[in-house]
Specification:
Layout lengths: L14 H11 L6 E3 L2 H6 L13 E4 L3 H11 L7 E4 L14 E4 L7 E5 L4 E5 L4 H8 L4 E2 L12 H7 L6 H4 L6 E7 L5 E4 L2 E2 H7 L5 H14 L2 H7 L16 E2 L4 E2 L2 H4 L8 E8 L1 E2 L3 E9 L2 H13 L4 E6 H8 L4 H4 L13 E9 L2 H20 L5 E7 L2 H12 L1 H5 L7 E2 L6 E2 L5 H14 L6 E4 L4 E4 L2 E2 L4 H20 L17 H20 L28 H5 L4 H6 L1 H5 L17 H6 L6 H17 L16 H10 L4 H10 L6 H5 L6 H12 L7 H7 L1 H8 L3 H8 L2 H11 L12 H5 L8 H6 L2 H4 L2 E5 L2 H6 L1 H13 L3 E4 L7 H5 L3 H19 L5 E3 L2 H8 L1 H5 L9 E3 H7 L15 E5 L2 H6 L3 H11 L3 E4 L18 H18 L5 E3 L2 H11 L6 H12 L1
Parallel strand pairs: 2-4, 3-4, 24-25, 24-26, 26-27, 28-29, 28-30
Antiparallel strand pairs: 1-2, 5-6, 6-13, 7-14, 8-9, 8-13, 10-12, 11-12, 15-17, 15-18, 16-17, 16-21, 19-23, 20-22, 21-22
Helix pairs in contact: 7-8, 8-19, 17-18, 24-26, 26-28, 37-47, 42-44, 45-46
Bound molecules: flavin-adenine dinucleotide and iron/sulfur cluster (SF4) (2 copies).
The site of one iron/sulfur cluster has 15 residues, from helix 23, helix 24, helix 27 and helix 28.
Length: 1014
């Protein structure tokens, strides 16, 4: 047994940074400044293999703030800046040991829209999908696409010159920039747009940064025009960043400095605002999913689709397809990519056609179909089948699956993980198939596993070979293979960065640009940023300086991770497996992922942030001498006296920062199922809390929450008295102020015990065991949970009534605590005990071979997940079904049908744990309602903000209400109270306190409907 040490990371904020921060605080700067270790760690990674802990994180609110940040830096030569948006870069572009300027928190305003002239002006932190949600009602969209569109920012897109699906038609981000407002390293605000060469020459004579930049542009882009044209082929993806070719428009005789800024990865200036052109949404779209018997066939077939004027052709290989099949996402696309009888789909091309003219599109599809039919009949081109859809929502689902592909590739067991380092090659599209065959041979020669997908129309291939970076020998392969791939793409006339940018592979930039032009881009860098303060080391260095480029072999995340002892990594494995792709930053309020991240806009409070903090905490434990065989609460101990005073004595312990991030988590489990690699925060959160509280004293509230399953049955014996007591104002005050608990729910009256006597048969194990198989098939066992049984007896009562009305016999099992509240609060010892007892109880009952069902799905799911993690598999040999799972399994003749004319409409607000763990649960309820002649509409909502007891905790009340306001409030208000149905007990409680009515559980509607028919 050891005492959890006080953790003080060695990487502290330097004196210089502190002085800079003090100067910034004394200025007119309006944004936030964070220097805590946790804040710095939260931006120390992106989706790459690298990790850099910055000195501080600044969150500006405006262009003025950006200018103040830079100007304040003029007195501190060694202070450097790296701008950051969504942090989704794949090559460490935004990582820095300097200061991070995170524009994603505040600079999210859409400033101006001009439909007539087809442009929009935005702040740089606006998320691409947010912009498109805003433009959609006007019939427009910002057309460059990218897989990370639900979290990547416009600033990030501009600085990587992002593009993706449809780029042949819609181009890259740089093709849509009309004007930029940016800030140079010295703090000058630039407004750049195309200007005539005469104006450029006149402006170049002034004494400003812009003048120096224009002087250089005239020398380089105009003066070296022939070298530039000779060096770069005129292809879709051939110059991203420092676009020397397009900064000078020979035809218009104009200069556009924005063209240099696009793709410059923050190495020239901060982009503050952008005026972007927008594109009309095509009126009609069709998608043809063509299935092939091998991936090579899919690749070789693609060019003819492009020749047939498809808007885009995307491809995925069998590995990606199979991973998608095993993921929650498949549920949404399975009917659009159906299996082909007696064939294996080993490659898929998604061919899109867009047009305002419906007939034109139909004609194209007809021609394509005839050709595909012939190829299938003649067994040509490897085509085995195809499916067509014109439905935009279905097309969206297919692309969502494709966009999730990278994340899915990360879903591998063991230490080998698919990593980004040669993930973004581009070659002329007609050479892609040959290139890929050779690329495959290269990867095969290193015996690596990989999945592939990409934009075949633009010759862009995405591949992430799986490497075990804990192994230093395998880490060396990153450089070896990168060098080989650089040579391979050169052979095919291609390049290493199709759309993801350069970042830590900037060391290849000199060779890519060639000596002459590399010198020129260094001169451009020197004109913008002579002191190398802007994202130093990325792309190029100021001309004639001795500054160095960052290297592929720079410090990697694995360098830190591999220092963490294996048993620590294993105990907290979900935190280790996060690959930083940022899907958990999803802005969409109707998506359950991740409510705490959405409400705080603080990366520490996202699954990625939490995973990163836990990794660092594990490393710090090791560095502070923790040597245990097993990393669990069992290995730590502190005396009660020491616990009581620890907090004040160790106020700056890094464990407190980790605790803050864990404490903000709702334990809603959306990450567990929605993160592509299933980063299960509630799992490592409870382990962390259990260890943390061996050193620090718990708040009383935690004991209150963890014991709710003991308290509730006692209080339910005298419910009216208990409710009277709980409603007394001094009790409420004491609970709120001293315990930290608000709006304690009332116990059900009449209690379940009184309500059910006539409905449920007595539980008698021996009698049930004696039943014949036929009699058993008429019985159903109800597993009680503390919330519905004691606080929401109506829902249990309705379940019993419904089962009875079906002609079956419900048996209410004796209450046996579930333990979830203990798990959530990190009382792991108590949870293990509860789980063991209840498991023993349910395992014995499982021998009866009668279905067991639970009314609240989130508690049922605890048996499947948390129980399995703490108990041996043989001790969890029982199965409890959710209500919808059981009902949908019943034969139709068991369920009563009602003619359609009796149809009534209801609205389903499903519990987020339930719908993310059981993706068919919403549609199952819908199907069940249809069977009874009722209509159930699924309402897309995120989390309700209650999540068990989170919303009852005083410290979380504000965020709980805020989360409810994100998606529930307006949607609940939209429908008649009687028609609003919620499957979660928590959700019903939240609506009750915030909308003043208690929604019904769907089973209550079905029960009253069925009994009314009898
Ligand atoms: C799973 C996955 C799929 C991807 N798919 C695509 C794809 O299809 N197409 C594609 O193009 N990319 C793709 N990317 C790469 C990445 O999402 C893009 O590069 C994106 O444009 C980055 O945006 P961001 O807001 O996350 O920027 P960040 O990663 O935060 O930053 C990217 C670069 O821009 C700079 N920067 C950010 N904001 C500013 C600013 N205001 N001023 C100056 N510099 C700034 C940063 O310093 C950094 O150099 C993918 C990444 C992942 C993880
Ligand atoms: S937690 Fe999951 S979704 Fe979030 S960054 Fe990590 S891997 Fe991606
Ligand atoms: S459990 Fe919910 S709140 Fe916590 S990290 Fe996961 S998604 Fe976010």
């Amino acid at each position: 047994m050891t005492v959890l040490p006080h953790l003080s990371p060695a990487d502290t904020v330097h004196n210089l940074t502190q002085r800079y921060v003090d100067a910034l605080k004394a200025s007119q700067y309006q944004g936030e400044i964070e220097v805590s270790y946790a804040s710095r760690m939260a931006v120390a990674t992106d989706n790459s293999i690298y990790q850099r802990i910055p000195q501080a994180v600044l969150f500006p609110k405006s262009v003025d703030d950006l200018a103040i940040i830079a100007k304040t830096g003029n007195d501190f030569d060694d202070i450097t800046f790296s701008a950051r948006g969504g942090g989704t870069g794949t090559n460490g572009q935004s990582l820095t040991p300097g200061l991070v300027i995170d524009t994603s928190r505040h600079m999210q305003e859409i400033l101006e829209l001009n439909i007539e002239q087809q442009w929009v002006r935005v702040q740089c932190g606006v998320i691409k999908d947010v912009l498109n949600d805003y433009l959609r009602p006007h019939g427009y969209f910002f057309s460059p696409d990218l897989s990370t569109s639900n979290r990547a920012t416009i600033g990030g897109m501009i600085n990587t010159d992002a593009s993706g699906q449809g780029s042949l038609v819609y181009g890259k981000t740089s093709d849509h920039i009309l004007e930029l407002s940016s800030v140079t390293a010295s703090g000058e605000v630039l407004h750049t747009k195309p200007i005539s060469i005469e104006s450029a020459k006149a402006l170049a004579t002034e004494n400003t940064d812009y003048a120096k930049i224009l002087q250089q542009v005239l020398l380089t882009c105009v003066g070296k025009r022939q070298d530039i044209l000779a060096k770069f082929p005129r292809l879709n993806r051939f110059l991203t960043g420092y676009d020397l070719e397009h900064a000078y428009n020979e035809t218009a005789n104009s200069i556009d400095v924005s063209r240099l800024l696009a793709g410059s990865e923050g190495s020239l200036a901060f982009i503050g605002e952008a005026k972007l052109n927008i594109t009309k949404i095509p009126k009609h779209t069709a998608l043809v999913n063509i299935k092939y018997n091998d991936f090579e066939s899919a690749l070789r077939h693609a060019p003819s689709m492009i020749a047939a004027n498809a808007t885009s052709v995307e491809t995925v290989d069998s590995r990606v397809l199979n991973l998608a099949r095993a993921d929650i996402v498949w549920h949404s696309v399975s009917s659009l990519i159906e299996d082909v009888p007696n064939k294996v789909i080993d490659g898929l091309n998604m061919v899109e056609y867009n047009n305002d003219d419906e007939d034109a599109i139909k004609l194209k599809i007809k021609t394509l179909s005839e050709r595909l039919d012939a190829e299938i009949a003649n067994e040509q081109s490897g085509v085995i089948a195809y499916q067509i859809t014109y439905d935009t929502s279905e097309i969206k689902k297919i692309y969502a699956m494709r966009k999730k592909a990278v994340g899915l590739l990360g879903k591998t067991k063991g230490n080998k993980k698919p990593i980004a380092f040669a993930e973004d090659t581009a070659v002329p599209p007609e050479k892609l198939a040959d290139f890929i065959m050779e690329f495959r041979a290269l990867l095969d020669s290193h015996q690596l596993e990989y999945g592939m997908f990409g934009h075949v129309d633009a010759g862009v291939l995405h591949v992430r070979p799986a490497l075990d970076l804990y192994d230093e020998e395998q880490e060396k392969l990153v450089k070896t293979i990168s060098d080989q791939v650089v040579a391979l793409v050169a052979k095919y006339g291609g390049l290493m960065w199709g759309e993801h940018g350069k970042g830590y592979r900037s060391e290849y930039a000199p060779a890519f640009f060639g000596e002459t032009l590399y010198d020129e881009i260094c001169k451009v860098k020197a004109a913008f940023d002579p002191l190398n303060k802007m994202n130093p080391g990325k792309i190029c260095t100021p001309y004639a300086s001795d500054a160095k480029l960052v290297q592929v072999d720079s410090l990697k995340r694995a360098t830190f991770d591999r220092q963490i002892p294996v048993q620590f990594r294993e105990a907290f494995s979900p935190a280790m497996s996060c690959n930083g792709n940022g899907l958990c930053f999803n802005y969409d309020t109707t998506s359950p992922m991740c409510p705490s991240s959405k409400i705080t806009s603080d990366r520490r409070h996202s699954p990625k942030g939490r995973a990163g903090l836990i990794r660092e905490w594990l490393l710090q434990l090791h560095k502070h001498g923790v040597r245990t065989e097993e990393l669990s609460y069992k290995s730590f101990k502190s005396g009660i006296f020491s616990k009581l005073f620890s907090r004040s004595r160790h106020a700056d312990d890094f464990s407190h920062e980790v605790f803050e991030a864990m404490n903000g988590c709702l334990a809603c489990k959306s990450c567990t199922n929605q993160c592509p690699v299933n980063v299960d925060v509630p799992d490592f959160r409870s382990k962390f809390l259990a260890i943390y509280y061996t050193r620090y004293q718990r708040p009383i509230k935690d004991y209150f929450v963890a014991n709710v399953e003991r308290l509730a049955p006692l209080l339910a014996k005298l419910p009216r008295l208990a409710n009277l007591f709980l409603n007394m104002s001094f009790v409420k005050y004491a609970l709120r102020e001293w315990v930290g608990y608000v709006d304690a729910p009332e116990l059900s009256y009449p209690p379940l015990k009184t309500r059910m006597s006539a409905l449920s048969s007595e539980y008698d194990y021996e009698a049930l065991a004696r039943l014949s198989a036929e009699e058993k098939s008429q019985h159903v066992l109800i597993v009680q949970d503390p919330f519905t049984s004691f606080y929401d007896a109506e829902s249990v009562d309705s379940t019993l009534k419904f089962i009875k009305a079906l002609g079956m016999t419900p048996v209410l099992l004796p209450f046996s605590p579930n333990g979830k509240p203990q798990h959530v609060k990190g009382f792991l010892q108590a949870f293990e005990k509860t789980a063991r007892t209840t498991s023993r109880f349910l395992s014995r009952i499982a021998n009866l071979d009668i279905p067991m069902i639970g009314v609240d799905a989130s508690l049922v799911l605890c048996y499947r997940d948390e129980y399995k993690k703490v108990l041996q598999p043989e001790n969890t040999n029982f199965s409890v079904m959710t209500l919808s799972e059981w009902l949908i399994s019943l034969p139709d003749e068991r369920l009563v049908h009602k003619p359609k004319s009796a149809s009534q409409s209801y609205h389903l607000f499903a519990h987020c744990s339930e719908k993310t763990a059981l993706p068919s649960s919403e549609s199952d309820w819908q199907t069940l309602f249809t069977k009874f002649g009722l209509t159930l509409n699924i309402i897309p909502v995120g989390c309700c903000g209650m999540a068990g007891t989170y919303g009852h905790e005083t410290e979380h009340l504000e965020n709980s209400i805020g989360i409810y306001n994100l998606s529930w409030r307006s949607k609940v208000a939209k429908y008649r109270a009687e028609s609003v149905l919620a499957t979660g007990y928590s959700c019903r409680s939240q609506v009750k306190r915030l909308a003043d009515f208690k929604p019904q559980h769907p089973i209550e509607v079905l029960a009253s409907h069925l009994t009314s028919l009898k």
